[in-house]
């Protein structure tokens, strides 16, 4: 069985195999330790085909409905962030919007995206907050990415993640979120609780698709963003 890409448990079990459609025969494995459901590498897209799908996204910072969608994370983050705090939007995509929303309310936010804003130097700085909206479900190595996100946070900083969570094994087969070919990692509330325990983080879980972590007050040795 494939090893869990989040906790490295080798006891993952086949949960579901897609029966029909363009993703027929795609397999999904459930980890008994961290409750992550993941798609093995055999069924993942290469970077060229993955980006081809992302290029079809039409996220527009002037789209009122898209902004309203992002407010599910934006509002509870702003409630925690004083004016002047600086952040990073990780995986900002082809139409960065959340970073602009933070800029507009006095919380400067830069961006990073492996395809559209690939500036690794921005991951070598630290920030008061980091956001990751509709990104973590796309990554093949979620533990590595989670380390990256935490490394970018100042002590006491906030990490906000938006991704739909799976709720029950019985409902997984009918869950439309799994049908996106770029979605390969699916988180449960228990998965985020596992991460909070592993990294000694404070965790707040919001309905459906938002969680916010707070990093402990431990010094780290990176350059803070100006």
Helix content: 10-25%
Number of domains: 1
How many distinct helices? 6
* Low-pLDDT stretches: 219-226
- Globally, the shape reads globular
Tell me, what is the CATH class? Answer: Alpha Beta
Named CATH topology: Rossmann fold
β-strand percent reads 15-25%
What is the H-and-E element order? EEEHHEHEEHEHEHEEE
What is the end-to-end distance? 46 Å
Outline the biggest β-sheet.
7 strands, mixed
* Overall pLDDT confidence: 94
What is the CA-atom radius of gyration, in angstroms?
17 Å
Please provide the count of β strands.
Answer: 11
Structural class: alpha/beta
- Tell me the name of the CATH homologous superfamily: Vaccinia Virus protein VP39
**What is the annotated CATH architecture?**
3-Layer(aba) Sandwich
């Amino acid at each position: 069985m494939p090893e869990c890409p989040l906790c490295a448990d080798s006891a993952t079990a086949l949960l579901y195999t897609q029966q029909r459609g363009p993703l027929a025969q795609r397999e999904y494995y459930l980890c008994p330790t961290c409750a992550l459901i993941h798609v093995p590498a055999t069924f993942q897209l290469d970077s060229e085909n993955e980006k081809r799908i992302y290029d079809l996204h039409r996220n527009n910072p002037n789209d009122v409905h898209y902004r309203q969608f992002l407010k599910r994370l934006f509002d509870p983050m702003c409630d925690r962030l004083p004016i002047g705090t600086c952040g990073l939007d990780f995986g900002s995509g082809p139409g960065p919007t959340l970073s602009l929303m933070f800029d507009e309310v006095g919380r400067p936010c830069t961006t990073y995206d492996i395809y559209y804003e690939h500036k690794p130097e921005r991951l070598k700085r630290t920030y008061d907050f980091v956001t990751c909206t509709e990104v973590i479900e796309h990554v093949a190595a979620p533990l590595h990415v989670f380390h990256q996100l935490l490394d970018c946070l100042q002590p006491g900083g906030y990490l906000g993640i938006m991704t739909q969570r799976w709720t029950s094994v019985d409902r997984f087969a009918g869950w439309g979120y799994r049908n996106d070919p770029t979605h390969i990692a699916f988180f449960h509330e228990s998965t985020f609780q596992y991460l909070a325990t592993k990294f000694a983080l404070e965790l707040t879980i919001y309905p459906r698709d938002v969680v916010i972590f707070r990093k402990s007050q431990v010094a780290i040795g990176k350059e803070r963003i100006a």
